[in-house]
Write a structure and sequence with these properties.
The protein has 248 residues and is of the alpha/beta class. The protein contains eleven helices and five strands; from the N terminus they run αβαβαβαβαβαααααα. InterPro entries: CheY-like_superfamily, Sig_transdc_resp-reg_C-effctor, Sig_transdc_resp-reg_receiver, Tscrpt_reg_LuxR_C, WH-like_DNA-bd_sf.
Length: 248
């Protein structure tokens, strides 16, 4: 939910709700929540209520203080104030994106505009709230952010495993693999590489062993996950495959 404005009476009720920890509903604990806000009273309110909800919490008074911390190595959410003294929240978000960090961002703003909201969401923010915000809504956004961050880390782990296995292949095995995943038969691969079909069979067996797979579809998945081949094959590669098929 993207929230940009509320009326005065609603704001008063929301602020009162955030001041009292019993107003915060229980939330599933897990991951880390970083609160980046130069307004100490507001930051401490959020930190206290997040801890009461079962989260591990770190607070930062500026964007640079947060960015100086090493990227989290576990699912993490960043509650980021739009207005900061040293750099804007949007600038912090862009720096995180440039650093390929896995934390997911939830914005809070006192004077947020539609333009800043759109910029934040396009850059990957989970949500954008006007302050004060209902604690239930903020906690829901935190849960979504942690889930997305967890997915990011699982994908990163899969990529690391796939790349490590791919790195174990010799240069010739990589050449054979590239032709395998494009559907070439052993005979066609041997002709393309100028070697014997029996040699290709040996390379193929070594590839399967090193990648720890048993089938060609699994080989394709490992190659795609590692980034070795695009998902799906590029049109240029498809055109080349059609030419080979026609000449066979």
């Amino acid at each position: 939910m993207v929230t940009l404005s509320t009326d005065g009476s609603r704001q008063s009720r929301q602020e009162n709700a955030f001041t009292h920890s019993h107003a915060v509903p229980p939330a599933k604990a897990g991951g880390l929540v970083c609160v980046v806000d130069h307004q100490q009273a507001r930051r401490l309110q959020m930190e206290r209520n997040l801890r009461d909800a079962g989260y591990r919490v770190l607070g930062f008074g500026s964007g640079r203080d947060f960015l100086s911390m090493l990227p989290c190595s576990l699912p993490a959410c960043v509650i980021l104030a739009l207005e900061l003294p040293d750099m804007t929240g949007l600038e912090v978000q862009l720096a995180m994106k440039a650093g390929d960090r896995g934390e997911k961002v939830v914005f809070v703003a006192e004077q947020g505009t539609l333009v800043s909201c759109v910029q934040a969401m396009k850059a990957g923010a989970v949500d954008f709230f006007a302050w004060p915000v209902m604690p239930e809504l903020l906690l829901q956004a935190v849960e979504i952010a942690l889930a997305r961050s967890g997915s990011w880390w699982r994908k990163r782990s899969s990529q690391s495993t796939a790349r490590a296995r791919m790195d174990s292949l010799t240069r010739r095995e990589v050449e054979v693999l590239r032709l395998m995943i494009r559907g070439r038969l052993n005979r066609q691969i041997a002709e393309t590489l100028g070697t014997a079909e029996a040699t290709i069979k040996i390379h193929r067996r070594h590839i399967m062993e090193k990648l720890e797979v048993r089938s060609l579809p699994e080989v394709v998945i490992i190659a795609q996950t590692s980034g070795m081949i695009p998902q799906p094959l590029s049109e240029a590669m498809r055109r080349e495959d059609r030419k080979v098929a026609m000449s066979s």
